[in-house]
Design goal:
The chain has helices at 11-24, 34-37, 54-60, 80-87, 99-109, 131-144, 161-164, 175-178, 187-193, 215-228, 242-250, 262-275, 293-300, 314-319, 331-344, and strands at 5-7, 29-31, 47-50, 68-72, 91-94, 118-124, 149-153, 196-197, 200-203, 231-235, 251-259, 282-287, 304-308. It is α/β, with parallel strands linked by helices. The chain starts with a strand and ends with a helix. The model has no long low-confidence stretch (mean pLDDT 92).
């Protein structure tokens, strides 16, 4: 993949642009004179021209192209707009005020093919319902079907969803390393930082003190994943805070996993009060038990999207550190395959 091109002889400006590019997680090509830029001019996804080189570039007469920006650090330069027109730039960005926009421009230019991934949230109707296992299973099933998938653990008190996958020792960033991110983030850079196994990338927690997820960080992660993934699965805590609200508002489907007993349904009905403020795309997954699925869905006023039978030996498998078994004959495997097939036909 080709890299953004920077054209400038101003070393101080170049230092600023290198820092901004690093913040976007991208590498750039640098031309210190218009003649050096010629091989990169047409193929670079973005061209950033320093105001110091604009006149020389215009004099060289490069062919017109889209995606050119003029960057300056001089707020009182009366010639800046003339130079902008001369080089065919779409905008003038003044540093340092425009650094955040320039980070976004670099990240967008360096994105992989747009995938328009869909977000699915999973939340337990009561404690211990098994929502994290369901979320991990959905993500793993999607990845095995060839979908580029991001699994997001949004519950700092859940023990780490990477443990369910047997990947708690995988090298890579966790939420505490990501929480300061905001604005546009390159999914390529995000994927490179996180533990990735084939088509599955995981954002989980480390062991220790866990700071809350700022909504801006959740927004940045999900927007990056929407551009770079086919499927995003978010395991939500039962307390719906600002970060959870960000995820719910983006979800095409939110699965509420409800044990089929009286306390499970009562607990789920309380949770629905908060969840319904952020999304109407809700479906109940019933964990088989004493109550019939139709009784549960009537009580909650939410349609049933499936019933999960007990899976023999699942707890033993997870305690050994193995990923959930998701064969066609397992309840989890059948549900996940059927749900994702339904999702793909929407």
């Amino acid at each position: 993949m080709h890299r953004p091109l920077v054209i400038t002889e101003d070393q101080d400006l170049l230092d600023d642009l290198l820092r901004v590019a690093a913040a976007a997680g991208v590498e750039i090509d640098v031309a210190h004179a218009p003649a050096h830029a010629r091989p990169y001019w047409q193929r670079a996804p973005l061209v950033v021209v320093g105001a110091d080189s604009a006149d020389a570039l215009a004099a060289a007469g490069p062919p017109p192209r889209q995606g050119v920006l003029l960057v300056t650090r001089a707020s009182d330069d009366p010639a800046v707009w003339r130079r902008c027109v001369a080089v065919g730039a779409k905008a003038v960005l003044e540093l340092p005020e425009a650094e955040r926009r320039l980070v976004d421009e670099f990240a967008e230019a360096s994105e992989p093919v747009i995938r328009a991934g869909e977000t699915v949230c999973v939340i337990g109707g009561s404690g211990g319902a098994g929502a994290s296992v369901l979320a991990a299973s959905l993500a793993l099933t999607g990845a095995r079907r060839g979908l580029r998938t991001l699994l997001v653990d949004a519950d700092p008190l859940g023990g780490g969803i990477d443990v369910i996958l047997g990947q708690e020792h995988a090298i890579g960033a966790r939420w505490p390393d990501i929480v300061e991110r905001e604005g546009r983030v390159s999914f390529t850079a995000l994927q490179a930082a996180l533990p990735t196994m084939g088509e599955l990338t995981v954002l989980s927690w480390h062991r220790g003190e866990s700071p809350p997820i700022p909504p801006e960080a959740m927004r940045a992660v999900l927007e990056a994943a929407h551009r770079g993934c086919d499927l995003i699965v978010v395991d939500l805590p039962r307390h719906v805070g600002p970060a959870s609200g960000e995820a719910l508002s983006r979800a095409v489907s939110t699965l509420l996993l409800v044990p089929a007993d009286v306390r499970g349904v009562l607990s789920a009905s309380q949770l629905l009060i908060d969840v319904s403020r952020h999304t109407s795309a809700l479906g109940v997954v019933v964990r088989a038990g004493a109550l019939l699925p139709e009784v549960i869905t009537h009580s909650l006023g939410v349609p049933c999207v499936g019933v999960l039978e007990d899976q023999r030996g699942l707890a033993d498998v997870l305690n050994r550190g193995d990923a959930p078994p998701l064969g066609d004959r397992t309840p989890l495997g059948r549900f996940c395959a059927d749900f994702l097939a339904t999702l793909e036909t929407r």
